[in-house]
Design goal:
This protein has 317 residues and is of the alpha/beta class. The chain has two domains: 211 residues, Rossmann fold (3-Layer(aba) Sandwich); 90 residues, no CATH class. Helices cover 39% and strands 16% of the residues. The protein is built from eleven helices and eight strands. Strands 1-2-4-3-5-6-7-8 form an eight-stranded mixed β-sheet, sandwiched between helices. Helix 4 runs antiparallel to helix 5. The protein starts with 13 loop residues before the first strand and ends with a helix.
């Protein structure tokens, strides 16, 4: 007799670990029963936040959701390189190889959003396309810093204004870089760090309901902030330092990404100007474009139904 409290296999979330070159054991959430698919999460995100969108698809696909060092289930695993994008790309390469060997496939589809998609641009530059059958790029430019020939970097025309804010908060936290416990920071600094994070989150969404959700989730009154145990604050600051210091530009690798690509764009994205994102589609040899006109950068939050439809269509090839 079937135990009604036992979920069918396809709905059982499991965790596997993959050993990296430096000996770290990175967790990968796994769910589903079918063709292997990998999805890469955004800055500050937990890979398991993809679950609401993939659960209806788990009868046809097995989803591999890696947790990047410092985030989600890997929050206790530290970076060993300043260039975190490069380190994440190395880690992703090992994970892809592991899944391909374990599932006896030559390649697999990959979907990546925001920071995860930046990692994929780095991956393509370093490891090529042979292990990726098709790719869904979700609102991410291959260029972070604006340049004379590219004004579509992070925050577009507001880049300098917002980068100045980020430089300020990084500089303020540097004297406390060896302090692990967020609650031990001066209150004014805790307020500044959380305010800047809230600003970034609000810039990532467009719909009023999404902004309301972000405001509720990020609200910290004084009493709550005193006791707020912000586990990932140091890791976020390290990533932010690298974003500000390293001139990430993966455009030279684009012409070699000849696999089918869907470039999914938030039509109201404040992080990456949609017009410049459309130029990426034109630069890719085998790309199609989908614009969700009411979505900001955080497409799954702003347009969950639209995102699900695009993801399902991408997986169906």
């Amino acid at each position: 007799m079937t135990n009604l409290l036992t979920l069918p296999t396809q709905y059982q979330l499991q965790t596997m670990t993959v050993a990296t070159m430096d000996g770290a054991l990175l967790p990968v959430s796994v769910i589903g029963d079918g063709e292997p698919v990998m999805m890469l999460h955004a800055y500050g995100m937990d890979a398991r936040e993809f679950l609401p969108f993939i659960l209806p698809l788990t009868s046809k696909y097995t989803f591999y959701l890696p947790h990047f060092r410092g985030f989600g289930a890997a929050k206790d695993i530290n970076l060993t390189q300043f260039d975190f994008v490069r380190q994440y790309a190395d880690d992703v390469n090992i994970m892809i190889e592991h899944v391909c060997r374990d599932r006896n496939v030559e390649s697999l589809p990959i979907a990546a959003i925001s920071m995860g998609a930046l990692v994929m641009w780095s991956y393509f530059e370093r490891f090529g396309i042979s292990r990726v059958s098709r790719y869904l790029n979700i609102d991410q430019s291959p260029v972070i810093h604006n340049q004379s020939d590219w004004q579509g970097g992070l925050f577009g025309a507001r880049q300098q204004e917002l980068f100045d804010i980020f430089h300020e908060v990084v500089d303020l936290t540097l004297p406390y870089s060896n302090l692990d416990i967020f609650t031990h920071l001066p209150f004014a600094l805790k307020r500044r760090v959380t305010d800047v994070e809230r600003l970034f989150s609000l810039l990532s969404v467009n719909r009023p309901r999404s902004k309301a959700i972000v405001k509720i989730l990020t609200h910290q009154n004084d009493h709550k902030l005193v006791f707020y145990d912000h586990i990932t604050w140091q890791h976020k600051m390290r990533c932010l330092q690298a974003y500000l210091a390293i001139p990430y530009d993966f455009r030279p690798a684009i012409e070699d990404v000849t696999i089918p690509v869907i470039n999914l764009i938030g039509g109201r994205s404040k992080l990456y100007d949609p017009k410049w994102q459309q130029k990426i589609t034109q630069m890719l040899p085998n790309a199609t474009e989908v614009i969700l006109p009411r979505a900001g950068h955080a497409i799954p939050l702003d347009e969950p139904t639209g995102f699900y439809r695009v993801l399902k269509g991408f997986l169906q090839g």
